[in-house]
Amino acid sequence: MSKQNTYSPSAEVGSVRTRRTRKQRIWIELKKAPVSAWVGILIITFYAVMAIFAPLIAPYGEAEVFDVPFAQWDDTHWLGTDQIGRDVLSRLIFGARNTIGIALATTFLAFLIGGSLGLIAAINRGWLDQLISRGVDVLMAIPSLIFALMLLSIFGSSAWSLIMIIAVIDSTRVFRLTRAVAVNVAVMDYVEAATVRGEGLGWIMRKEILPNIMPPLVAEFGLRFCFVFLTIASLSFLGVGIQPPTADWGSMVRETAQLIQFAKYDIKAALTPLIPAGAIALITVGVNFLVDWFLQKSSGLRDE
Amino acid sequence: MTSKYFRDVDQKFILSRKRYKSPKCNSVHDVTIWLSKAHLVNAVISTIFKRLGLGLITLFLVSIIIFSAINMLPGDFGQAVLGQAATEETVAVFRKELGLDKPAFFRYLDWIGAVAQGDFGTSFSGRASSGIDRSRPVIDLVAPRLSNTLFLAALTAVIAVPIALFLGITAALWRNSWYDKGASVATLTTISFPEFFVAYILILLFGTLWPLFPSLADIRPDMAMADRIYASILPAATLTLVIVAHMMRMTRAAIINLLASPYIEMARLKGETPRRIILKHALPNAWAPIATVIAFNLAYLVVGVVVVEVVFVYPGVGQLMVDAVSSRDIPVVQACALFFAATYILLNLVADIIGIVTNPRLLHPK
User: Fold this and answer.
1) 8 A C-beta contact, residue B309 and residue B152
2) Is residue B113 domain-resident?
3) B35 is in which domain, residue-wise?
4) Is residue A280 within 8 Å of residue A235, measured between CB atoms?
5) What count of CB pairs under 8 Å joins A to B?
6) Which residues, including other chains, have CB under 8 Å from residue B258's CB and lie 6 or more apart?
7) DSSP H or E segment with residue A203
8) Residue B303: which of A146, A237, A270 has the nearest Cβ?
9) Rounded mean pLDDT of A127-143?
10) Which residues, in sequence order, are CB contacts of A40 under 8 Å at separation 6+?
């Protein structure tokens, strides 16, 4: 009996608890996530797959022109063709790649500019902070869509100028947030300790402050991505954003918009312009759901 | 013991209210209170003037940014506008007209002086390489559209503000009910939609499937008021849907924020009716955030007009600006940008000032 009984209370208390791996922890969090967050994750995954594997999924090429413009929905062209005979479904899939790619690049750039300036301003707190903050105040006084339109009329509508312009305009909003949250961290003792032991500006920004302000920045990244996405889609819809023949959802809506007036005769055709518009709406809804959940998770933030 | 405490506080509250309501100054103490109040009113006025000054400075800086737009143009712009066939003389004349031969500082003074008198220069379109000038003054292009855009914005505001306030206040009152949750999901979804998506859904439903309203808002100056409203119902409805979502969420947040404050809890503990709590205690403090929300959203509305005008081919400033951007007609773009930016700044300023004026805390000594 005493041979079998190897249990000892002190051993149990003394043994090190096995930590859950990161994967396990993420899975546990996900299992607790509300339905809306799951919907968001599914939507985003779907879009990501579409964007990454576009050439494999799409039945035809991005700018492949067929004989019949405005063809009806049938087996060869599931969603018909557009005004010069390109397959709408293929363009929709390639459009995911172009539109999301440009929006992501723009958001990253905006965070690079706005985030680093915000951190510098929060650490400096002197004339530099004043200079940047007041400059940003003035830039933010101009409505962003109007500002973007004005700059586009000067620099022309290429993909690069689009990315640069929107990134600069949106970096002002990122700057505001980064500075606001970083100011509270920059006065902490450990930041002062780092300064005293002679760390450089780059170290303090990256290693001392940035890890502590990550959650609000990540949430802001999601929201900012939505705004950038909607702005680019609106500009493309207005005809001054992404230029043809590049497939893009905003311009696809514009190109096929006239089909709506035939709704009484062919409801499917009338839905053609609504599909890319709906695709834009769906991805922003998905990102919003995910960000909502993340915000509640990371800060216990609720709107009450 | 708790009830005694509350009775005490209650008694003090009633006493203080009585003293506050009596207009007579019986003692030296009262006189000092009145004097300090006058001082506070002055403080409020000076704050307002500070904001106004700040707004003017912002407007001035924004005008500099918009003006510098023309300086950032690449290369020889005169040649680009007039075409390859333009002779050297026409290009020289054009450059002189733009003032490109003068330093930027003087050009800015000339420009802003002319703008102050309503002269925005002449449009680039209509100029030919031969030197024949059929271009029109920018003000002639913008002015008739200005009233159209303001009409659309005003119509939307008239529809949207009451709806949004009603929805926002009721959602805050019955928060966490199915009504609130439904409204919250609906607004989150509408906010995520691009304006043109909403617009085309409305056109599909009410323009073509059930043709109740015209899907092209063709506004002419000689139209009767009723016809104008009828023609711009769909654009106004689109803008309303977009803006009500924002406004409702912000109103709800403002009210909930307020209902969480201790003095509301105090009133609730005293046993006052919910209606009285809302009307007597919450609303006087809520006007400031609500007014700010309205003004802020009207500023948003003026900008949101651009896309909607293009969808419905509504002859407003937004559509003009988009056309000018695609043809790179810089003077027209500048004029439109100045109009939008000025309206935006002005409305935000109004929001700020309403916030100051209606904040009762600023009028009472601490």
Assistant:
1) yes
2) no
3) 2-53
4) no
5) 144
6) B264, B282, B285, B286, B289
7) helix A201-203
8) A146
9) 88
10) A285, A286, A287, A288, A289, A290, A293
Residues B152 and B18 in one domain: no
ipTM: 0.80
The two structure tokens encoding residue B126 = 């209509």
Residue whose entry in the numeric block shows the structure tokens 């889609």? A233
CA distance B245 to B186: 8
Burial of B330 (C-beta count, 10 Å sphere; 0-12/13-18/19+)? buried
Say yes or no: A17 contacts chain B, CB-CB below 8 A.
no
When CB atoms are compared, the residue of A141, A230, A292 closest to B62 is A141
- Do the chains contact at B306 and A146, CB–CB below 8 Å? yes
| pLDDT value at residue B339 | 87
User: Do B161 and B39 belong to one domain?
Assistant: no
What pLDDT is attached to residue B136?
75
pLDDT at A2 over 60: no
Q: Which of A153, A234, A304 lies nearest to residue B324, judging by beta carbons?
A: A153
Distance from CA of A153 to the nearest CA of B (A): 5
Residue A137 burial by CB count (10 A; 0-12/13-18/19+): exposed, middle or buried? middle
Quick one: residue B365, left, alpha or beta (phi over 0 = left, psi -120 to 50 = alpha)? beta
| B193 secondary structure, DSSP code | S
Q: Are residues B256 and A303, on separate chains, in Cβ contact within 8 Å? A: yes
Chain B residues within an 8 Å CB radius of A278: 197
Between residues A115 and A28, the one the model is more confident about: A115
Assign residue B151 the CATH number of its domain: 1.10.3720.10
Residue ending a domain, choose from B53, B68, B94: B53
| Phi, then psi, of A81 in degrees rounded to 5 | -120, 165
Of A143, A260, A264, nearest to B200 by CB-CB distance is A260
pLDDT band at A168 (very low <50, low <70, confident <90, very high): very high
Measured between CA atoms, the residue of chain B closest to residue A257 is B200
Decide if B113 contacts B194 (C-beta within 8 A).
Answer: no
Same domain, B154 and B287: yes
Give the closest-approach CA distance of A141 to chain B in angstroms: 6
Give the mean model confidence (pLDDT) for residues A2-16. 71
Q: Which CATH architecture has domain A36-299?
A: Orthogonal Bundle (1.10)
Identify the segments of chain B with pLDDT beneath 50: 1-25, 366
Cβ pair A146:B209 closer than 8 A:
no
- Residues 116-145 on A with a CB inside 8 Å of B are 137-139, 141-143, 145
pLDDT at A19 > cutoff 70: yes
Q: Which neighbouring-strand residues pair with A81?
A: A87
Chain B residues touching A141 at Cβ < 8 A? 58, 61-62, 341, 344-345, 348
Express as a percent the part of chain A with pLDDT over 90: 20
